[in-house]
Specification:
The complex is a heterodimer of chains A (224) and B (250). Helices cover 84% and strands 0% of the residues of chain A. Chain A is mainly α and 224 residues long. Chain B has 8 helices and 10 strands. The chains are: A mainly alpha (224), B alpha/beta (250).
Amino acid sequence: MGAALATVWTLARKDLLLELRSRDIVLAIIVFGLLMITIFTFAIELTPSRSKDVGPGVLWAAVAFAGVLGLNRSFAMESEGDTLDGLMLTPVSRELIFFGKVLGNFIFITIAQIVIFPVFEALFNISVLQIETIVIALLASIGFSAVGTAFAAVSVRVRSREIMLPLLFLPTSVPLIMAAIESTSIVVNGGSWSDFSDWLQLAIAFDVIFVIASAVLFQFVLEE
Amino acid sequence: MTTPTQQAPEVQTKGVLALIEVTRVEKSFGNAAVLRGLDMTVRDGEVVAIFGANGVGKSTLLRVLATLTRPDHGSISVYGSDLSKQAEDARLSLGAVLHSPMLYGDLTVKENLTFFGKMFRVPDLDERVLALASRMGVTQRLDQRVRELSHGYQKRAALARALLHRPRVLLLDEAETGLDDPARVILDGVISEHRASGHAVVMTTHSIERGIEESDRVMVLSGGRIALDQPSSQVTSNDVTGLYTDSSDG
């Protein structure tokens, strides 16, 4: 188990080092996410009640759509030098490669959320920096990373990968996006854990199912 | 979930230590059948040169042997490990240099070798990286990013990556392409050392004379099968090119 975790960390650490050098992924997620949020602040006349009504939807749409950009990029960097083949030549199981990529993507999305959430809070004037929303954000990041990693692996071998990934990722992630929006909406309107426990359970169930399903899909996708 | 083990099992097949056994392997891409019931065996200490016309399936064969592409039918074993069931064990015995270097452009040569070394759980990794860098003539470039290197130096670094875990089978897909003379000398040395230490090399090349000279056995791939399998001493370049025409037609 320790060896498996070390391998997953080695893979994720490599992605973090690459990102530190290129700054392609996190920057893309942050810029696109902030742009979406900013555009909505101009498009909607924000009153306190309207902010609470539409804010959670805007926040999670921004995170999901911006996340697609980053996920696309995270696999593009593996295809550029055929390094995915290099990974596949190692005696590491495809599941561990998958979990290494998921961990890297989870960290990228989480870092982007750390920047996006405070800006969102300032622009929409609603408090999302609470323990409840942080838990929701972490659950969303796990699901986005798992589904996104598997579908990015599917998309990376096709010519129109920039189009393919959102077409696969966004419809599949709808239950998770809905759970995140509804939970956040309840939290910003003063609800407690028990008020959104159903949505929280949906998010947890989504993560468990799709982490396992994505890991299985990933193995088959890698060997075409 | 499995993690790498240190050594793959050895198997004695019919009195000869068979490194690779390929049996009736088929591989198609869409409607195009590339490998059609291909059989081949590679033994210990043997250098096998595979020739064939463009598009005949040489690279596909090497990708199948490297476990990068799953065959549609047939079986392959490497040191007794069935690739369909024990691919992770088999990969411990395989090192490959294919068309692209399979290195991260934004990482330095040292970071790349260290990363792949960790994936293979190479013991004494730092020493191994330095020794291979010296062997491949990239010591001065260890701290340079791979994308800043010339194609030739990228190939040298790729060769170092392939040798990190001391593989018993080296798969070389036109590895000499883009190499200057000093780098070719290094490559030739690696092939000779591999043979001398009882390990095997399976190489594809378009340089027929060089391939025949370097190898112990020559195979020509044509029509999705091995059309010629002879000791190199009994093969001329005309024998090889004659089958090129056939494969192009077929």
